[in-house]
Specification:
Length: about 800
């Protein structure tokens, strides 16, 4: 959104520089992303001044040139060679000084330099109006009738001062600030300088010869509709002041009628539309929804197929405009228009948003209606537009204002707990300061007690619907930077949170992952549907598609974290950063028969080496266990270590991996990304990938800290060597051991695996260690041997193991 500083100062008298005002607005939530300089004439006539010709003589070597001396206010006259036939001593002229740049009308810019013309030195240029871009004449130099002192900037003479324009990154919730008036409201609260609404006291109805009736069939879509007729207008170009205002905010002037509606829109935030009154059949406006499948030609000449919920502005016979979005070609203002009907309405944001999205239409009007406009601004904006049109296009108001408003929208009544407001703000600022801020913002205080304020919130504050929103309004005006931070960074003023706190848990785990050498990445949840094409129709069917996407590469919500992570790996690998450990906590989406499912996942990627090459050792490639170890430790920290490890099945993107299963739910998967997937993404490295079901883990997380005294009796370790079928996993051995000895067995570990010519084909040898502990007494050899014998028996019985003595 662009806001003109000169225009803003017509509403509120601000004597601060633009940079300071920009900082104030940014602090209040209207982020000023840039401040541009707008010049009515390109270059702003910089370096071009008013001068006086002191002497003028013919050039000794050129009949058509004159050698002049010109006083440009520097103390020493400048010699300038001039080719204009009308130059003469005593004239006041426009002089381009040395090193200035000229932007001629219809030509390329050029810089003025010291030069010699036919042997005579020339230090500048006496200009014609087309040479400085203020006109088209080249008949001779401009001769000015002015008493301004020599050296006065030409921009001052022509009234072409520069404007400063704020580029504001308006957030969707700040619909109230989508105009110069909205910004002035915030500045009033920030500076205690009152703003002034444009006066409409001169609005009068001259006659009622062109009355237009209004009927609203759908009051849900259009709660208020008003209009007035102005007859005898002459459509033509707008005056320079109006064109300047529009150009400053990057709008192109069209004609005086349309320009006024755009001007009032950006001044007051109320969208308007002008119809050719002679094209309103039956002298009647009907506001209703369209017939399903009907067609309508908009101002851009496009025929559009309408939907049943599209709001239309119709006459007695046919549609004339898509309400709040776009006008119609047949009813628009043209050069032949002599009477106009000005529309000013309040439309439902839901209806306008759906229509705009369905037809891919985004206009300045729909931008504001979608976010919410002020129903109380409808009549003021209508009168303002009618007065401006009379001023610059002539005509007279030829009807009473028709205002159909069956159920007026009331202010929202809220109660603010003063003590709670201070708790949320973070420090005590006082009830009087709170009341002053609210009053400055237009929120009325209808009653108060020692502990509470009763508030009336006007409809233009569309984002203020609850107590917390009121506190946010107070805080952004008071200033986030003015909140003192506790020496100990405590948050005692905040409300207590139930334990465990998911955000605290998440932060702790992510800190652990980062401490293990992983770098956090943040990628877009919107991705390319082509990534999922190789996975088949079933995978494609589950994609959540974006209806109004702007790019073919960003048309679906991601179903897995794999591809967004591989994009990051590819970017780094292509820049010779091959040893990578990254993670992302983000959301994935899946289309269901009704609606869609949104789930948070923690994804981890490892590629390249985990140990860098050095003189002591070669580089060590990343392996499954590098990633599995981190995942297992994360599950341990989440008190989710009582999982089962199962072979990875059904995953379209990974192989050579395992799934960690808890109570029948897969809580994590770790494995090697399929080479076909990495090749498809143009990643030329082997990538190990893990994905944790974060929402499930947080839901099942038990915030418990178990403390126990150190054992008084020693642990005992026993080793065992087994020969088993190659298909038997360590997890199967571990589960058999746990089921066999639950009381004394503390840990099972594998410290060697052998496959080779010393064991049969299809077999492998495991070397396991078992840690035993009795907390009540010292383990005896008899007890230890009994445990080991039972373990060997069950390994032989359940897994067909051969015990190596």
């Amino acid at each position: 959104m662009l806001i003109s500083f000169d225009w803003l100062k017509q509403l509120i008298h601000i004597d601060k520089p633009a940079e300071e005002v920009g900082a104030l607005l940014t602090g209040a939530g209207l982020e000023v992303e840039a401040i541009h300089t707008f010049d009515q004439v390109k270059g702003g006539l910089e370096g071009i001044v008013i001068g006086e010709v002191l002497t003028c003589e013919r050039h000794p070597d050129a009949d058509r040139l004159s050698v002049t001396t010109v006083d440009i206010g520097t103390g020493e006259p400048s010699q300038i060679v001039c080719g204009a036939p009308n130059v003469a001593a005593g004239q006041k002229v426009v002089v381009a000084t040395v090193n200035s740049t000229l932007y001629p009308t219809g030509g390329e810019p050029f810089k003025i330099k010291k030069s010699k013309i036919r042997g005579a030195a020339s230090e500048g240029m006496i200009c014609a109006e087309d040479e400085i871009g203020v006109g088209t004449s080249h008949a001779g130099i401009m001769v000015l009738d002015t008493d301004l002192p020599n050296g006065t900037p030409a921009a001052e003479y022509f009234g072409l001062g520069s404007d400063r324009v704020f580029e504001i990154g308006l957030t969707p919730n700040r619909a109230d600030a989508a105009s110069h008036l909205g910004v002035a409201r915030d500045l009033k609260a920030l500076t205690q300088v009152s703003y002034t609404l444009p006066s409409v006291e001169d609005f009068t109805v001259s006659n009622t010869s062109r009355s237009i009736d209004v009927e609203i069939e759908n009051t849900e879509a259009c709660p208020r509709y008003a209009g007035v007729t102005v007859s005898g207008v002459k459509v033509g170009p707008s005056p320079e002041w109006l064109q300047k205002r529009l150009r400053a905010i990057d709008l192109s002037p069209i004609n005086n009628i349309v320009d006024v509606t755009n001007y009032v829109l950006h001044e007051l935030g109320q969208p308007l539309h002008a119809f050719d009154a002679d094209k309103i059949k039956g002298d009647k406006i009907v506001v209703k929804t369209a017939d399903e499948g009907s067609t309508f030609v908009t101002l851009d000449g496009v025929e559009r197929k309408m939907r049943a919920n599209d709001l239309m502005i119709c006459n007695a016979e046919e549609p004339m405009a898509i309400g709040g979005v776009f006008g119609g070609k047949a009813s628009g203002v043209t050069e032949e228009t002599m009477s106009i009907f000005i529309e000013s309405a309040y439309f439902s944001s839901d209806y306008i948003r759906r229509t705009g999205m369905a037809h891919g239409l985004k206009t300045d009007a729909s931008f504001r209606f979608e976010r919410g406009t002020d129903p109380n601004m409808v009549i003021l904006a209508l009168k303002r537009a009618a007065l401006l049109i009379q001023e610059i296009a002539g005509g007279a108001v030829s009807s009473e204002i028709v205002d159909v408003y069956p159920q007026p929208i009331q202010d929202l009544e809220l109660t603010l707990d003063i003590e709670r407001a201070h708790m949320l703000i973070g420090q005590y600022i006082g009830a009087e300061r709170i009341k002053a801020i609210l009053t400055d913002l237009g929120i009325a205080i209808t009653g108060e007690t020692e502990t509470h304020l009763h508030l009336s919130v006007p409809p233009f504050k569309v984002d203020v619907t609850r107590e917390a929103d009121v506190v946010e309004e107070i805080l952004r005006i008071y200033g986030f930077n003015n909140i003192e931070v506790s020496e100990h960074m405590g948050t005692s003023y905040m409300a207590s949170f139930p334990k465990p706190d998911p955000e605290h848990i998440t932060g702790t785990i992510l800190d652990y992952v980062s401490a293990n050498g992983f770098h956090e990445i943040i990628t877009n949840s919107i991705t390319n549907s082509n990534y999922y094409t190789p996975a088949g129709e079933q995978e494609m069917a589950g994609l959540v598609r974006v209806l109004n996407y702007n790019s073919e590469d960003l048309d679906v919500l991601r179903k897995t974290m794999v591809f967004s992570g591989l994009e990051v790996l590819r970017y780094n690998i292509n820049r010779r950063q091959r040893d990578l450990k990254v993670y992302e906590l983000g959301k994935v989406y899946e289309q269901l028969e009704e609606g869609f499912r949104e789930t948070r996942k923690l994804a981890l990627f490892i590629a390249g080496n985990t140990t860098a090459e050095s003189w002591k050792q070669p580089g060590v490639k990343a392996s499954f266990h590098d990633l599995a170890g981190v995942v297992q430790n994360v599950l341990q920290k989440l008190n989710a270590a009582d999982y089962e490890v199962q072979p990875l099945e059904g995953n379209r993107y990974m192989r050579q991996g395992v799934a960690y299963v808890k109570n029948g739910t897969v809580i994590a998967e770790v494995g090697l990304l399929d080479a076909g997937v990495t090749r498809f993404m143009d990643v030329k490295e082997q990538v190990w990938y893990a994905e944790l079901n974060w929402d499930y883990l947080l839901k099942k997380y038990k915030d418990k800290l178990v403390a126990e005294e150190l054992p008084k009796f020693p642990e005992v370790r026993r080793d065992l060597s087994l020969v088993l079928d190659r298909a038997v996993t360590f997890e199967q051995l571990k589960q058999v051991a746990i089921r066999t000895e639950r009381k004394l067995l503390q840990n099972v570990n594998v410290f060697d695996v052998y496959e080779g010519d010393k064991v049969e084909t299809g077999k492998k040898a495991y070397a396991l260690s078992f840690t035993l502990l009795d907390r009540q007494q010292t383990l005896t050899d008899k007890v230890i041997e009994g445990v080991m014998n039972r373990l060997m028996q069950q390994f032989e019985k359940q897994l067909g193991a051969i015990i190596r003595k």
